[in-house]
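Exercise 7.
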Amino acid sequence: MIEITNRAAAELKVLMEDAGKSGSAIRIYITGTSSSGDAQYGLALADDIDKFDVTTENNGIKLVMAAKVAIGFSDGSIDFVADKNGKNFIIQNAESGSCSNCEECNICEAE
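Solution. The predicted structure, written as tokens, is:
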């Protein structure tokens, strides 16, 4: 399960409302990989959801992921922080780890 904190849910709802997309889904996607091989994730409004996407919902927010992304991200959290450095969503994948065998890892293929 992907937990969306109350702070993150509130901020996502405001962003969707400001974009005129209240009730839309949020897509989790892979933006790249770190030097250690961990996937790095991003969030975007999910304008198009296809039959192969995996959907879930938490804290009033519908999440969408491509199937290959969902395979490596079934447990984690999304939080929101605002501090002197700015505002950011923090996406943590409890299953992240470095890729040690490219034949078994779907992260690169999902980018």
